[in-house]
Amino acid sequence: MRAARYYGNGDIRIEEIEEPTVGPGQVGVDVAWCGICGTDLHEFKDGPIFCPKPGHPHPISGEDAPITLGHEFSGVVSSLGEGVTDLEIGQHVVVEPYIIREGVNTGPDSRDYHLSPDMNFIGLAGRGGGLGEKIAVARRWVHPISNDVPLDQAALIEPLSVGYHAVERSGAKAGDVAIVGGAGPIGLLTAAVLKAQGATVVISELSPLRRQKALDTKVADHAFDPREVDVVEEVKKLTDGRGADVAFECTSVQPAMDTLVEALRPQGVLVIVSIWGQRGSFDMQQIVLKELDVRGTIAYVNSHPGTIKLVEEGKINLAPFITGKIGLDGLISEGFDTLINRNETAVKILVSPSGKGL
Questions:
Q1: What are 142-173's pLDDT values in tens digits?
Q2: From the CA atom positions of the chain, what is the Rg in Å?
Q3: Angle at CA of residue 68, ends 187 and 11, nearest 5°
Q4: Distance of CA 276 to CAs 250, 251, 252, 281, Å?
Q5: Rounded to 5 degrees, what angle do the CA atoms 59, 63, 68 make?
Q6: What is the set of domains in the chain, with CATH numbers?
Q7: DSSP state letters, 25-88
């Protein structure tokens, strides 16, 4: 089968590799669509980061570069390993792409398996990836999804789960006013979850194209350019001078962080969603005098079922966030190049490893 293989910084190759063997307790999946994630871009430009270097195998997967990329993907069940009896051939599924040590509690009540030692991701640290035509995945990480949800939209369940977990961490509820700093893919999808749960959403974003996308998709009630308006004052106008209840930092940019801190009401909650490649700082006096809660969030934990339910019930429409579809041969020239050099023109570019659906 064909797959996109990561060798190192700036080195991704489309190669023919062996199809995976589906072992006991595993599910064979024909990959339909795989999204290109910001993490994939970081690996290409700055890595290896999550991807293990050649000669340094990951302690759980036992694999090192080259590895097959891709962790945001949907597909169709093609085979069932011994002992898997609750799925059917032909069923639509998405994958929660974790690589986690044996013995870690990953049951339905766990709230911290995503923080366990040496955690990593399928499609970054081995065990196949969504940028290959086929994959074999342990049953625990395979989530069925209604065949009524198109498979291209289903590929966005993984990044949507990031937003779902961030909103859970915030404690946001219907009627709250939320401000999201940044309308990239994760900012937009976090806003989509907030809207689905009944919040009023304000987005602060420099790019006019991204602001318009937030308004056109109706995931934001208001979208402001911080160069043109005082975002903090606009939030206060919308809240009778009080400030936002919750804020979500989705840029890893210091001025955006500062705006969110100022825009929050006393005892508001700030959730830091983005991955920071540099040290950030806070105006500690504001944190203290407003009694703000600051919470980190990473990935998701038992978030996929709730996320899938929102989509199956029609509370979130993922179609508008798909802005491009390509094959494996266009991965760098049409996919990575667009997202690195013209990122405001795209939200989510999907790849069909087999070429089907293009």
A1: 999 999 999 999 999 999 999 999 999 999 99
A2: 20
A3: 85
A4: 10, 9, 5, 11
A5: 130
A6: 2-156+318-352 (3.90.180.10), 162-296 (3.40.50.720)
A7: TEEEEEEEEEEPPHHHHHHHHH--SSSPPTT---TTT---SSEE---EEEEEEEEE-TT--S--
- Here the contacts of 208-212 (C-beta below 8 Å, separation 24 or greater) are 209/344, 209/345, 210/183, 210/184, 210/344, 211/183
What stretches of the chain show up as alpha helix (H) in DSSP?
Answer: 38-46, 151-154, 157-170, 185-196, 208-216, 231-238, 254-263, 284-289, 304-312, 337-341
pLDDT digits (tens, 9 = 90+) for 44-95: 998 899 999 999 999 999 999 999 999 999 999 999 999 999 999 999 999 9
Query: How do strand 293-296 and strand 142-144 relate by DSSP bridges?
Result: unpaired
Tokens (6 digits) for 8: 């190192």
The two structure tokens encoding residue 133: 């035509």
Q: How far apart are CA 189 and CA 186, in angstroms?
A: 5
Spatial separation of the C-alpha atoms in residues 138 and 23, rounded to whole Å: 9
**Tokens, residue 212:** 């318009």
Closest CA to 141 of 97, 195, 191: 97
- In b/e form, how buried is each residue of 126-157, taking b as 16+ CB within 10 angstroms? bbbbbbbbbbbbbbebbbebeeebbbbbbbbb
Q: How far is CA 30 from CA 6, 39, 91, 134, 292, in A?
A: 20, 23, 11, 5, 46
> Which stretch of DSSP H or E encloses residue 15?
strand 11-16
Instruction: Look up residue 19 and give its DSSP letter.
Output: P
pTM: 0.96
